[in-house]
């Protein structure tokens, strides 16, 4: 019973970065309605966000892309480049629409941990913050499939990463990475490979560690860039 109480008191701190005050106000209203979430700072552009987060830590940052002074991609790259002065590195969720596909791939490379449509329902916003804070990517496997369909034309024809980065993977880990890149969930991968889902989770964790990927989505990008998987026409 005490563990449930302790868990209930664990608060995830959130920073809102968007140049539209009404957008920030709407997100803040939804987030602050939850006992385990709290908005601790707001910023109207990337420069202000980087400056404020240097002295006011936040677990998760909701980051718009198009902003004056410094856009969300540049701010994300700065925030995820290394440990913050107060220790740790915030997880960044990019606020996006799928008509900004070119930004999505850049954001993954900049260190974003996930993506959220600006018009997403409140429950998706809240789930995304909690998911990223746990260390998982926001994008669900089904959404990964959708995202990759949009990104396929933007992925380079030539391989932009050496396949040497895959040398450390075992044959089974390569199989798991290919299935991840095809948008398969852990449950589906377990069924495909006739193993337990817990085993798949272990493999996924090792793949991320060996590739130096922050999350599942970044690992998928590596799979495409090394030529392990090719975009479907």
Automatic annotation (TrEMBL):
It comes from Georgenia halotolerans. This is Response regulator transcription factor. SUPFAM superfamilies: C-terminal effector domain of the bipartite response regulators (SSF46894), CheY-like (SSF52172). InterPro entries: CheY-like_superfamily, NreC/VraR/RcsB-like_REC, Sig_transdc_resp-reg_C-effctor, Sig_transdc_resp-reg_receiver, Tscrpt_reg_LuxR_C, WalR-like. The modification 4-aspartylphosphate is found at residue 64. Keywords: DNA-binding, Phosphoprotein, Transcription, Transcription regulation. Residues 162-227 form the HTH luxR-type domain. It comes from the Bacteria. CDD domains: LuxR_C_like, REC_NarL-like. The lineage of its organism: Bacteria, Bacillati, Actinomycetota, Actinomycetes, Micrococcales. Residues 13-133 form the Response regulatory domain.
């Amino acid at each position: 019973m005490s563990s449930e109480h302790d868990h209930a008191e664990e608060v995830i701190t959130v920073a809102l970065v968007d140049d539209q005050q009404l957008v920030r106000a709407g997100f803040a209203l939804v987030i602050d309605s939850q006992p385990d979430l709290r908005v601790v700072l707001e910023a109207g552009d990337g420069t202000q966000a980087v400056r404020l987060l240097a002295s006011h830590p936040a677990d998760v940052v909701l980051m718009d892309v198009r902003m004056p002074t410094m856009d969300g991609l540049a701010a994300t790259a700065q925030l995820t480049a290394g440990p913050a002065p107060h220790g740790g590195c915030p997880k960044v969720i990019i606020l996006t629409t799928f008509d900004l596909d070119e930004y999505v791939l850049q954001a993954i490379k900049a260190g974003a941990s996930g993506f959220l449509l600006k018009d997403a329902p409140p429950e998706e916003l809240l789930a995304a913050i909690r998911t990223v804070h746990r260390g998982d990517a926001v994008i669900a496997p089904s959404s990964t499939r959708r995202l990759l369909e949009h990104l396929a034309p933007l992925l380079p024809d030539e391989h932009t990463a050496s396949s040497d980065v895959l040398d450390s993977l075992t044959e089974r880990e390569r199989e798991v990475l290919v299935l991840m890149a095809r948008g398969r969930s852990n449950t589906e991968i377990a069924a495909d490979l006739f193993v337990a889902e817990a085993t798949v989770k272990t493999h996924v964790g090792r793949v991320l560690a060996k590739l130096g990927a922050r999350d599942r989505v970044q690992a998928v990008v590596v799979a495409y860039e090394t030529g392990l998987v090719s975009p479907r026409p």
